[in-house]
Design a protein that fits this description.
single chain; about 300 residues; alpha+beta; Tumour Suppressor Smad4; Alpha-Beta Plaits; 6-stranded antiparallel β-sheet; 6-stranded mixed β-sheet; about 30% helix; elongated
Length: about 300
């Protein structure tokens, strides 16, 4: 072949695997935030039942809540999917509107119970990007809650949404009272046991739409979507009293612990993660200074 000639490759550039596009549903808000479900050409049922294709751990979702059906491709080659509600108890919403059946558009947000799924059409490069974001979502092995870094990934998206639609969002900063004495008196095994059970109590006390993380040591943080300050205070008191009333038992040793909580709310206490966490942390400090085992508002 002549050195100065260009090599011609037959075939469409769209045959390149990098340009192949597929559809997926990504958990945008909910207990499994960041998880993605690749859509197939066969019908896929969404719900909380054991026999569905896309299972959501959401008590407000019906067992067989909705179904996604493949409806061919558009002129550009992108897949077309139709979403149908399966006569669910709490209905199915797309972009805030109740639907019975609708063709999905790239970027549509689907609400099923307290879970929000985002419909996306991705090429291979975009799919790898979403996989990298998903891989950043990690859980604290002891408590089962998100890590602080993972919570920030989810928090940033949710705060942006709430500010855009002028919806409130609240933050709870929580710290176990005198936790060092638990470790000093009963040992680190008891301390680890307490942290694990506190993580479970926090999960039970919040909605599936809310997100919690272990912030570090004996500190925890939760953000409450679409929740104003009175609602956040109720949630914080529910967590505080549940921990106060719980008996922590390990190897026939029983102890009680308390927690102090600070609350902030967007937009009045800030429009960024750092502002809201800072305001809640200052309120938490006041709770500690004024006697512990209490909730203080920013």
């Amino acid at each position: 072949m002549d050195a100065g000639r260009t090599l011609i490759i037959r075939g469409s550039p769209f045959e390149d695997p990098e340009n192949e596009r597929h559809a997926a549903l990504i958990v945008f808000r909910g207990l499994e935030i960041g998880r993605d479900f690749r859509l197939r050409k066969n019908p896929m049922v969404i719900g909380r039942g054991e026999d569905v294709h896309i299972r959501l751990p959401d008590e407000r979702a019906s067992r067989r809540h909705a179904q996604v059906d493949f409806h061919g491709t558009d002129p550009g080659g992108d897949p077309i999917y139709r979403l149908r509600d399966l006569e669910s108890t709490n209905h199915t919403f797309v972009e805030g509107r109740e639907i019975h059946a609708v063709d999905l558009k790239d970027g549509d947000k689907i609400q099923i119970g307290d879970t929000v799924l985002k419909f996306v059409v991705l090429d291979a490069i975009e799919a790898r990007f979403h996989a990298e974001v998903r891989d950043r979502i990690s859980y604290d092995q002891l408590t089962g809650l998100l890590t602080k870094e993972s919570l920030y990934v989810a928090f940033e998206q949710e705060l942006e949404r709430c500010l855009k639609y002028e919806l409130p969002l609240s933050v709870l900063m929580m710290d176990l009272d005198r936790f060092k004495s638990v470790n000093d008196t009963h040992g680190h095994l008891m301390g680890s046991h307490v942290l694990a059970e506190v993580g479970e109590i926090i999960r039970r006390c919040i909605r599936s739409a809310d997100v919690s993380a272990r912030y570090g040591g004996e500190e925890f943080v939760t953000y409450l979507a679409e929740t104003d300050q009175p609602g956040a205070r109720l949630a914080a008191e529910r967590i505080r009293t549940s921990i106060e009333e719980h008996t922590f038992v390990l190897d026939d040793v029983s102890i009680g612990v308390h927690i102090s909580i600070g609350v902030s709310t967007a937009p009045q206490h800030g429009a960024s993660i750092m502002e809201l966490v800072g305001a809640a942390d200052a309120a938490l400090y006041r709770a500690k200074e004024t006697g512990r085992n209490r909730v203080c508002l920013a």
